[in-house]
Amino acid sequence: MKNQKNLVIGSIVALIAVIFVILNTKPVVINFGFFNVKLPLIVVLVVMVIIGMIIAWFFGHDKEEKHHFFNKNEKKTE
Fold first, then answer.
1. What pLDDT sits at residue 47?
2. Would you report the helix, strand and coil content of the chain in percent, each value rounded to 5?
3. Cβ distance 42 to 55 under 8 Å?
4. 40-69 burial, b if ≥16 CB within 10 A, otherwise e?
5. Which of 14, 20, 33, 54 has the fewest other C-beta atoms within 10 Å?
């Protein structure tokens, strides 16, 4: 049941993100300090969403591994 809930919430968030990205296609200037880059906003948003997904995956993956590690140690001590 928890997996279905996560799937539905993730699908809704992804749909909102896709709609938001599609509606924002004008070019923007990004200042990196030493140089400027002019890109369509859609590219910037897609890259930021992908970076956010990777960061979320790493944090979620870390919790799963810690949980698995502690459960494995508890079983050995019993």
1. 87
2. 75, 15, 10
3. no
4. eebebbeeebeeeeeeeeeeeeeeeeeeee
5. 33
CA dist 65 and 10 (Å) reads 22
What does the pLDDT average to over 29-56? 88
3-state DSSP assignment of residue 33: coil
> In angstroms, rounded to a whole number, what is the distance separating the alpha carbons of residues 27 and 9?
30
Asked whether the predicted pLDDT for residue 41 surpasses 90, the reply is no
Task: Tell me what the pLDDT averaged over the chain comes to.
Answer: 80
Structure tokens given for 28: 């923007």
At residue 29, the pLDDT reads 92
Sequence-ordered list of residues with C-beta below 8 angstroms from that of 27, at least 6 positions apart, any chain: 38, 39, 40, 41
